[in-house]
Specification:
This protein is α/β, with parallel strands linked by helices. 41% of the residues lie in helices and 18% in strands. The chain is elongated, with a radius of gyration of 24 Å. The structure holds S-adenosylmethionine.
């Protein structure tokens, strides 16, 4: 096993999702730094592995981090795992990865499950641009401020949420993003009660209000990006559209300007049509 740190993704529910490469690395490293050693012990047992575990958290005593770095400096190999999914994604590991890199040693990802990416891939929302927001602040006022900051975000937004806060968060999202904003509720991914529902924020809020089972387990919320409307077309873009439309068909103008501004072609085309019908 090469010296260094291996950042190993583990299942988010279904144990079959541990990759063959992850099993190989977890079986060969000298040490596994785990968020919860008892939890990881069960994963190792399930795969017939008996590697040595060390508890590691970003708030662990600095001596733990130092010991892990020293171990690597002495030609050792360490795997970093968390309870579920990809380490560092709303999970511990940031300080360790930086410390190992700063000491001049290799950090190798062993990719695999991640709830955010799994949810996005099956959401039916746009995937060309997305932002991962992780957990919102727990306090309602701070949560509302954070959501307000995001209300014009054009990319798909991904949030992690705990079951006891999900209803309040959906209500806050309805008031900030609007009842009709499209969203996806992804719960218990890869597990028996997996639920993936795409609907308006209002419908999702009703679903979670009416069915208390939807307030159990692990949840990812995804929100469609804000749609640019004709009112978001700046004066510069409007005059460019009008000038080009004197020479070219509206569809071509919309396509060219969309390509250069990132605005939606359909919105630009509709803007041109609305100018014509005036
Ligand atoms: N590192 C993990 C990853 O790669 O997804 C995330 C860890 S974070 C502490 C835990 C949160 O991830 C949960 O509260 C939930 O929002 C989300 N999550 C984890 N597993 C999930 C699953 N099976 N289904 C839906 N969401 C999940």
């Amino acid at each position: 096993m090469n010296t260094g740190l291996y950042v190993v993704a583990t299942p988010i529910g279904n144990l079959q999702d541990l990759s063959a490469r992850a099993v190989e690395v977890l079986g060969q490293v000298d040490l596994i730094a785990a968020e919860d050693t008892r939890h990881t012990q069960r994963l190792l047992q399930h795969n017939g592995l008996s590697s040595t575990l060390v508890a590691y958290h970003d708030h662990s005593d600095a001596r733990v981090l130092q010991r892990l770095c020293e171990h690597i400096a002495n030609n050792g190999s360490v795997a970093l795992v968390t309870d579920a999914g990809t380490p560092l994604i709303s999970d511990p590991g940031y300080r360790l990865v930086r410390a190992v890199q700063n000491a001049g040693f290799a950090v190798t990802p062993i990719p695999g499950p991640c709830a955010a990416i799994a949810a996005l891939s099956a959401s039916g929302l746009a995937t060309d641009r997305f932002v991962f927001e992780g957990f919102l602040p727990a306090k309602p006022a701070a949560r509302a401020s954070r959501l307000a900051e995001l209300s014009d975000t054009a990319a798909t937004m991904i949030f992690y949420e705990s079951p006891h806060r999900v209803l309040g968060t959906l209500a806050a999202m309805v008031s900030v993003f609007g009842a009709e904003r499209e969203a996806v509720f992804a719960r218990e991914l890869t597990k028996t009660f997996e639920t993936i529902k795409r609907a308006s924020l209002q419908s999702l809020h009703s679903l979670v209000t009416q069915d208390s089972n939807q307030r159990k387990g692990e949840i990812v919320l995804l929100i469609a990006g804000a749609q640019p409307s004709s009112s978001t077309i700046s004066r510069d873009v409007a005059s460019l559209l009008e000038r080009l439309a004197e020479e070219l068909p509206a569809k071509t103008v919309a396509a060219v300007v969309a390509e250069h501004t990132g605005l939606r072609k359909k919105v630009l085309y509709e803007f041109l049509l609305s100018r014509k019908s005036l």
